[in-house]
Amino acid sequence: MTVAAPQLLDDVSVVAAGQGGDGSLTVTTLLASLLRQRGLSVYTERDVLSRIRGGHAAAMIRASVHERFVGGDDVQLVIAFDEEGVRTTAHRLAPDAVIVYDDSAGPLGCVVPEGARIYAAPFGRLAVRHLGAILYKNSIAIGVATRVLGLDDGEVRTTFEERFRRYGQLILNYNMQALDLGYGLADEMGLQAGGGIFELRRGAIGERLLITGNEALAFGFLVAGGRFFAGYPITPASEIMDWLERTLPRFGGVVWQAEDELAAVNMTIGAALAGVRAMTATSGPGLALMQEGIGQAGSAEIPLVVVDSQRGGPSTGLPTKPEQSDLNMMVFGGNGEFPRIVLAPGHPEDCFTLAVEACNLAQRYQCPVYLAMDQGTSQNLATLEPFDLERVEVDQGKRLNAEQLAAAGVYQRYAFTDDGVSPYTVPGTPGGMSLVTGNERDEFGRVSTDRINRARMVDKRALKLERALDELPAARRYGDPAAPIGFVGIGAAFGPILEAMEELESRGLTNQFLQPRTVWPVLEETLEFVAQCERVYVVEQNATGQLAKLLVREGAESAKIRNVLRYDGTPLRSGHIVQDVLAQESKS
Amino acid sequence: MTETFPVANPIWCAGCGHFGVLSALDGSLDRLDIPRHRALVLAGIGCSGMIQNYVEAYGYHALHGRVLPTATGAKLANPALAVIAAGGDGDGLAIGVGHLVHTFRSNPGITYIMMNNATYGLTKGQASPTSPGGFKGSTAQRAMDPIMLGLSLPGTTFLARGYSGAPEQLERLIDAAITHAEEGNGFAFLEVISPCIAYNDTYHDWRERLHAVDDDPNYDPTDRASAFRLAVEAQAERRLATGLLFRSEERSLENALTSDPPALLDITPAAHLDEYRQVMQSFAG
After folding, report:
1. Interface contact flag, A276 B283, Cβ < 8 Å
2. Residue B137: what pLDDT?
3. What are the φ and ψ backbone dihedral angles of A205, each rounded to 5 degrees?
4. Residue A1 above 60 pLDDT?
5. What is the pTM assigned to this prediction?
6. CA-based nearest residue in chain A for residue B67
7. Residue A251 sits at the chain B interface (C-beta within 8 Å)
8. Which burial class, exposed, middle or buried, applies to A256 when counting CB atoms under 10 A from its CB (0-12, 13-18, 19+)?
9. Which of A214, A341, B164, B213 stands the most exposed, by the fewest C-beta atoms within 10 Å?
10. A352 at B interface, C-beta within 8 A
11. Is the pLDDT of residue A2 over 70?
12. Are B74 and B40 in contact (CB under 8 A)?
């Protein structure tokens, strides 16, 4: 029998799919470790339901010689523990994809691409029969899958040891036995060691972190001097609180799970009032509750950092699915008018950098600062260069200590100043007794309805934001600055746009991309970008084009703006963008 | 000495019960030798929510019903502060009652003075959760008792009730409450019957229906069940007990969660770079 030469890939997307609890995430996490060792960039996505066990659950890992921040359009390998796992992935399978299938319940019955190659074995039944627990089926399947990918048996065994050692010798042994079972099956199916179906090129990606956006953000908060977090569990933001719970106390910080988001935001405000760098994190439904508190911080001029990890809305919506539909709430929410800043990561590294920026901006301008995340940006793993910790600066704005207070003849918490920002001190500081309130107030903080004072105070608060414009985080830019076609996108739109640019470029559509890191206020640079392009595609995951409308509202020429929208609860991919743009280009 | 905000004259009606609370609270800071810059007075929305304007201290005007989480956040950020929360029966038992339940459970070292006049005075006299059934036509709802709420929750450590019309007792109770929180024993809850002479003048009524337990040798403030039983009995007769009604010992929230005040930590990155690098290493895989 001639063995075909392995197909050389510099880019592979692997999906592990089954029912919740089958271990799809475990499979992809293990593959992530293995593929990193080959110098490849790694990116993962998850597709789960709002359940503890059961229901369709899948995880995707993409490994590539080039940096990629989105799952591939095509899936080369799917490891499926049930038929639903194959069915839901079928539309994304490459024409000659490999399907490693658990046929414990019978042979695969659904439609697959004509050229798909199926390697089936009863992983579940074997796990129960030989190892006493069905959970080991994913380790058996990994044995087969790693042979498909042409990965070295020894390297896989080492990674298994590293991964499972922490669970004790017994569990480690079972998993190693499961792996050997898998190799045995692979041998029987003609997938010999050293002769896989695929061969993955080695990359030159060096020492990297493997980290999610939520973790990077939480770490950024720590390094920025954040020492208080209050929150309430909500998908997909909970990991921020989890991570901080484990780490912040080591640095003297406090993490508290409040009874609801109303308490969480007000505790954060109380902590910030007392002078600590404080943050809360939630998703759409929780943010709706926090609007009252955010307005209070905006009115009373209290530094407040709020993370919104957006998910499918409205209301309870799609708790585990990606969307970018809270922009309007972040930019315009709350009763009345008050200054706030909305920052948005795009490149995953921004999650760290902008968390630091948010803390500094909140204290410098004494206002709410949002970090607009989304389910994908929050929960997907990416390989990133280690963060540059030496460059992190802490700026607490016009904070007065006791000496400075004593030198000032009078202290007014809301004093009118040239830039709208009043010097402030914190409770406990001698000589600084003062009133802080959400009511309209005079310079001393006393409730006031005086018409002249009122207008001045409104202008004072607005002035803060005007003065902030020069210091707000600037956009990332990619592509040819003279290109006629422009892209604008944030969050999980970043990765697919970047990839789509290459495909479009190869079809003669030269293009450039501006990833705004400050969404509100809309910066001049964003408007200039639209002005200098011939047409701009604003790519976002919502139905009403919130980001596009924001740009137009603030002065971008609406005739130049085109929408690329996605709101079906699945991740944006570069293929979607390419198709949509080609369709719109051919009409124009 | 820096000039700070001029303490105002209260806007309360002459004869308002809140004057008694203000006087006792202001005096308490002096009696307990708490420097004014170490005191943080937070108040909710309502007539009672103005009290911070009338006390020389750091003051904060909270959202309606949210004074307790704000106070808790401030105390956790800097446990050295004397944190005193104040509000009315609507603020604390209607919109804010969820937070009261969980503050009882978590026991942070703050004092909470609930000025109970059984009405919403500032919005012109609507019924509140402590209004008797039939007040202003409100029908089926019975008046609730926050002391009984506190007794029903494990973890409560200080429950007391005072009355604006009994100033000596009120002074003692406020001093005891603030001391309880100051000494790291946790949440000190003090309800003060503080009549609204504009919309629900009950001074004459309360004179007959309040009885002090301070000097009652048979009243055991450490017996939760008996305190509850007595409260139920009093409720049946439309009477209320005043004094220190319950106390116990539990660790305060700030003692459980903090050592050095988080607000006063050195957060310059350079001071922690090695530790931060170690944390970052955990992602290096």
Report:
1. no
2. 64
3. -70, 125
4. no
5. 0.96
6. A266
7. yes
8. buried
9. B213
10. no
11. no
12. yes
